[in-house]
Structures are given as structure tokens and as C-alpha cells.
Write a structure and sequence with these properties.
The chain is of the alpha+beta class. It is 43% helix and 16% strand. It has two domains: 188 residues, Glutaredoxin (3-Layer(aba) Sandwich); 33 residues, no CATH class.
């Protein structure tokens, strides 16, 4: 794994000076998430990554819980080079996007659900042509022409290919080195792919409170901190005791 990350970082470093300006802001916003939302949650995902598969449904649940005007969840494609079918399946996301924004999420749902069908050892004896044909059948089931899907994925001069490449390079310049990779209001969050909605709410609610956004309180237990100190739950499972004059900063802890 460490070797894979080292290789990925080396490739990223070689590409950072060659990133073209995207035609539109990168990523796919879920359920009409608004650019003006006070919380911007981004996840860089690889459709062949088991951890991305685990985190993905929770991200959608978090977005639904807060609503599009409070939190925008944006999914970015970041196909890892050591997952053979990751780039092809990422291209499929952009084909789906051209057919309709709702189909993006249907594509992600389906490919994550069928993930094992596109990984080693299932694909050991399959050619790229056979893999693309299999993915094209998935596209066809969604109402996307399998012929058009195949033509777009096979054409390295098509915008689908270009968009998938730019998405990966964009992840590199954002410092992404694995998947899933989370950014909260543009800052990396050391979140586990197994975080629950409640764990995400802990850090997001803190952000909203700082911005003066009303957050419904949940029942809290007794404080772990001494008298006159305030418990700061800056990440799920992590807390510090803030003294007078210190603020509780999500993802950081107590700071003056």
C-alpha cells in the first residue's frame, strides 16, 4: 500500500504543472446542493475502492440530513492507478453526466453495488474491450446508449476522456493521495470511511454553530473536563478541554 501511495504521489507531482482550467467547477453536487451552502463537503472517490464504497452512502445520508441549502456534498472522481478498471468506470461517470445529472448518482450506486465484478480476480482474464462492453450494458440498463457509451470511452479525444483526466489531476493539486479523501470547507478531514452520520454531524454541527446557524441539540452526557473548562469534541472520539479564552475549533481543538 505504501509503495502504491508513493507511486501515486510521484505521478501527481509530475502532473501538477499541467492541469488545464476545467470548463466548469469540478465534481458532481448531490441533490441540488448549493454553492452558497455554509458547509461544503467534498469526497474524492475511486469506484473500485472498498473504502469509497463504504463511505459513499453515508455521504448521501449526511447531505440529505442537512438539506441542499445548508450542506453541499460534491463527489469527485479520483481513479487510483493500481485499480485496473478504476479509470474506465470513472469515464462512465462522465458519460452518465452528459445524459443527465440524476444518472450520475444512479451510475455510482450501481457500480459500487457491483464493484466486485470489476476487480481482480474477476477481471484477470478480461480484456479492456470486454470490461467496457460489460460497463456499457450497465449504461444501457439506465437508458444510456451502449453504442454511444462504448464510442465515448474508447475515444481518447472525446471530452469524457479529457474530463476524467482533469478530474484526477484536480485531485492531485488538492493534495489527494488516496480514497476516500474528504475536504470540509476546503480543508482535509482525517475522517474514517466508516464514520456514521452521527459522527459527521458532530463536526458539521460545530461548524454551523460557529456561523450562527441553528442546530438542534441532542442530549449530552456529563463533561470529561474539570470545572470551568469546556469540553471540545473537535473530531468524533477526540476531545480537548478548553480554558477561558480558548475557542473550540472543529478538526483542530482548543486554540486562542
Amino acid at each position: 500500500m505504501m509503495l502504491g501511495i508513493t507511486v501515486l504521489l510521484a505521478i501527481c507531482a509530475a502532473c501538477t504543472a499541467q492541469v488545464p482550467i476545467p470548463q466548469r467547477p469540478p465534481g458532481f453536487a448531490y441533490a441540488g446542493g448549493m454553492a452558497s451552502a455554509p458547509v461544503q463537503l467534498e469526497a474524492f472517490l475511486d469506484l473500485m475502492c472498498p473504502d469509497s464504497k463504504a463511505a459513499y452512502p453515508v455521504m448521501k445520508q449526511v447531505a440529505t440530513a442537512y438539506g441542499s441549502s445548508t450542506l453541499r456534498f460534491t463527489a469527485h472522481m479520483f481513479p487510483l492507478p493500481y485499480h485496473r478498471t478504476a479509470f474506465i468506470s470513472a469515464q462512465g461517470t462522465f458519460v452518465a453526466a452528459e445524459a443527465g445529472s440524476d444518472l450520475v448518482w444512479k451510475w455510482l450506486d450501481t457500480i459500487f453495488e457491483q464493484q466486485e465484478e470489476y476487480k481482480i480476480p474477476k477481471t484477470n482474464d478480461m480484456s479492456d474491450t470486454q470490461i467496457i462492453k460489460k460497463l456499457a450494458m450497465v449504461a444501457e440498463s439506465m437508458g444510456i446508449s451502449s453504442k454511444n457509451f462504448t464510442m465515448q470511452v474508447n475515444n481518447d479525444e472525446d471530452m469524457v476522456y479529457e474530463n476524467a483526466r482533469v478530474a484526477w489531476k484536480y485531485g492531485c493539486i488538492r493534495g489527494v493521495a488516496g480514497t476516500p479523501w474528504f475536504l470540509l470547507n476546503g480543508v482535509p478531514v482525517n475522517a474514517s470511511p466508516n464514520w456514521t452520520v452521527a459522527q459527521w454531524k458532530q463536526i458539521i454541527d460545530s461548524l454551523l454553530k460557529q456561523q450562527g446557524v441553528f442546530v438542534k441539540e441532542t442530549m449530552e452526557g456529563s463533561s470529561n473536563c474539570p470545572l470551568l473548562q469546556k469540553e471540545c469534541n473537535y473530531l468524533p472520539g477526540k476531545y480537548e478541554c478548553c480554558t477561558k479564552g480558548e475557542a473550540c475549533i472543529p478538526n483542530v481543538g482548543c486554540r486562542c
